């Protein structure tokens, strides 16, 4: 098994373990996790097939052109934790979103430069990744507030 496969397995295991350890109260955030999965798949299909922006040369599930671990496990769990622990103030929400986007952009940079987990068709530009993560957090937060707007 390649280093990339081990990284995928480890990231999925860490995300799932974090969810298992902190499972109390997470039921309310399952809809945002499911939406994040759908959103991640949608964005990846457009990016891969529509524009050729990136692809996943090494992945655990080779029958799919999408990253199973990322789109089905890690991103939904990250979205659930992000929404659950989002600060109540607008300034806190903005700083938290920018912070998460910065960390994930850094991890994506490392993955693009030093592994074959992801390759970019036109070269990696950190600001596109950062902007996409910011848009993603905003979209997931918007979905969550819309979903629960009548239920408190």
How does this model look, in words?
The chain has helices spanning 3-21, 30-51, 68-84, 90-114, 126-147; strands spanning 54-55, 119-120. With 152 residues, the protein is mainly alpha-helical. The protein has one domain. The protein has a two-stranded antiparallel sheet with strand order 1-2. Helix 2 packs antiparallel against helix 5. The longest helix has 25 residues, at 90-114. It is globular. The model has no long low-confidence stretch (mean pLDDT 90).
Outline:
The protein is an all-alpha fold and 152 residues long. The chain has helices at residues 3-21, 30-51, 68-84, 90-114, 126-147, and strands at residues 54-55, 119-120.
Q: What attributes does this structure have?
A:
152 residues; globular; mainly alpha
DSSP strand count: 2
Estimate the strand proportion.
Answer: under 5%
Main sheet record: 2 strands, antiparallel
Biggest sheet: strand arrangement: 1-2
Which structural class do you get from the secondary structure elements? mainly alpha
Question: How far is the first residue's CA from the last residue's CA?
Answer: 47 Å
List segments where confidence is low: pLDDT < 50 over at least 5 consecutive residues.
none
Q: Encode the helix/strand succession as letters.
A: HHEHHEH
Helix content: 55-70%
């Amino acid at each position: 098994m390649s280093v990339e496969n081990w990284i995928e397995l480890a990231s999925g295991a860490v995300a799932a373990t974090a969810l298992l350890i902190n499972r109390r109260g997470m039921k309310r955030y399952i809809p945002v996790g499911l939406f994040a999965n759908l959103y991640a798949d949608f964005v990846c299909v457009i990016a891969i097939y529509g524009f050729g922006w990136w692809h996943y040369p090494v992945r655990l599930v080779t029958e799919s052109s999408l990253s199973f671990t990322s789109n089905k496990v890690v991103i939904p769990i990250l979205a659930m934790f992000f929404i659950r622990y989002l600060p109540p103030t607008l300034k806190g929400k903005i700083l938290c979103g920018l912070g998460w986007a910065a960390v994930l952009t850094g991890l994506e940079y490392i993955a693009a430069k030093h592994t074959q987990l992801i390759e970019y068709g036109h070269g990696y530009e950190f600001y596109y990744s950062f902007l996409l993560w910011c848009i993603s957090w905003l979209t997931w937060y918007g979905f969550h507030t819309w979903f629960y707007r009548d239920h408190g």
